Amino acid sequence: MAVSFDLFGTLVTADRPTNPATAIARELEARDVRVPDDWSARYVQSHIDAPDGAEVPLPAHVSRALSSAGVEWHGNVVRRAVVAAFDPVVDTRDGALEAVEAAREHGPVALCSNCSVPELVGRTLVRSDLERDDFDVIVTSVGCGWRKPAPEIFETTAEQLGVDPTALVHVGDDELTDGGIEALGGTALLLDRTPLEDVLAALTAHFETARDARDNNPDARGDDRP
Asked: Which one, of 125, 115, 116, lies nearest residue 91 by Cα?
């Protein structure tokens, strides 16, 4: 049994650009990259044919959008511009530290976050009251290539934690994305029903029920006890 947490909106709040296209354009121009006049329109267009549920890293999207306008650049300047455009002020949500600590009482703990911007999850943790070592595993959509609710990101999280997806409880704030764990037989604890301060009680009740079911089911225990 194991627990994973969503990051943004669940454990922390982080201010993001209200207009990402404008923020990225500003950082590109600061690095002497020409921004086409119709940049806002190009930014919202799809330039990479990705499978359903796949994550497209934002630097790759921006690079293709610039290339579609004939813009050239050198090195990793586009990646650096995108990373700089997302430079959040971070607040740790009340109860976040206690919820992660409570999860540790029941097994390994992961962070499982949608994020198309490289380095953003790491910088967010540095600016929060959380520590990288609070988590046994950190899985991001930009890292594994799949966005919640795609089953692949939950499968990756469970595999790295050493459990079956059915034994994973995922805590998040978005039913559409974080609820995706339920398609694999896992459990979603959503903040609109289970606030962070109630996570300990909810996890304890869930895992006690799971243990009782296992103890009363010889097949689930993997032995032949009556």
From this structure: 125
